[in-house]
Amino acid sequence: MSADPRQPGPDTDGAPAGGWRLVVGCDDAGLAYKERLTADLRADPRVASVQDLGVHEGDHTAYPHIGLAAAQRVAAGEADRALLVCGTGIGMAVSANKVPGVRATTAHDSFSVERSVKSNNCQVLTLGQRVIGIELARLLVREWLGHVFDPASASADKVAVLDEYEGCG
Ligand SMILES: O=C[C@H](O)[C@H](O)COP(=O)(O)O
User: Fold this and answer.
1) Minimum CA distance residue for ligand 1 atom 8
2) What ipTM was assigned to the predicted interfaces of this complex?
3) Which pathway does it operate in (predicted)?
4) How many other C-beta atoms are found inside a 10 Å radius of the C-beta of residue 9?
5) How far is the CA of 29 from the centre of ligand 1 (A)?
6) Alpha-carbon span 146 to 135, nearest angstrom
7) Cβ(75) to ligand 1 under 6 A?
8) Residue 65: CB partners within 8 Å, gap ≥ 6?
9) Fewest CB atoms less than 10 Å from the CB: which of 59, 74, 75, 123?
């Protein structure tokens, strides 16, 4: 194992050389999970930084404000990926997908999380606090960071259609 835990190695599959730069966010329906998952991410050696856009206790900002703000940071290249939590995950995904160049999805099983990256090059994962248990959410987020999109794969041309449509290609 390298002395620098952020260097690629057996436990850091897929992480960028400097570690993942992440944004997290939630609405009040996703607050408890966002807090737990953010703590996990901050303890993960594959993660370089976690920017928490809220909400925090007592803040009732609606999900579109947080979802859009997080996706804008990804689109601007300020973050590699975003993790967003609301009641179902759906509102956050719908919101983040409004930002050109961003591909967001709710995924509540391992296979879908993997394919959201490897097939669809999604930069944004959304979870529903009212849908899955916290331990499954934690597992999915751990796995999510291990998956990377292969631009030489057969999936790349399919994703490129979306970039061309949006003028981001
Ligand atoms: O997708 C929306 C989220 O689940 C949100 O947390 C709850 O939205 P609602 O209060 O409009 O049902």
Assistant:
1) 87
2) 0.96
3) Carbohydrate metabolism; erythritol degradation; Carbohydrate metabolism; D-threitol degradation
4) 14
5) 7
6) 17
7) no
8) none
9) 59
Taking a C-beta distance cutoff of 8 angstroms, is the pair 83, 24 a contact? yes
Structure tokens at 60: 């009732």
Sign of torsion, CA 97 123 154 164? positive
The answer to whether 122 is a known catalytic residue is no
Q: Are 106 and 127 in contact (CB under 8 A)?
A: yes
- The pLDDT tens digits for 121-150 are 999 999 999 999 999 999 999 999 999 999
d(CA 95, CA 52): 17
pLDDT tens readout for residues 85-116: 999 999 999 999 999 999 999 999 999 999 99
Tokens of 85: 């939590």
Cβ–ligand 1 contact at 29 (below 6 Å): yes
- Rounded to two decimals, the pTM is 0.92
Instruction: Assess contact for 153 and 20: CB atoms under 8 A.
Output: no
Between β-strands 81-86 and 104-106, what pairing exists: parallel, antiparallel or unpaired?
Answer: unpaired
Q: Is 126 in the pocket of ligand 1 (CB under 6 A)?
A: no
Is the beta carbon of 88 within 6 A of some atom in ligand 1? yes
Q: Which atom of ligand 1 lies closest to the CA of 94?
A: 1
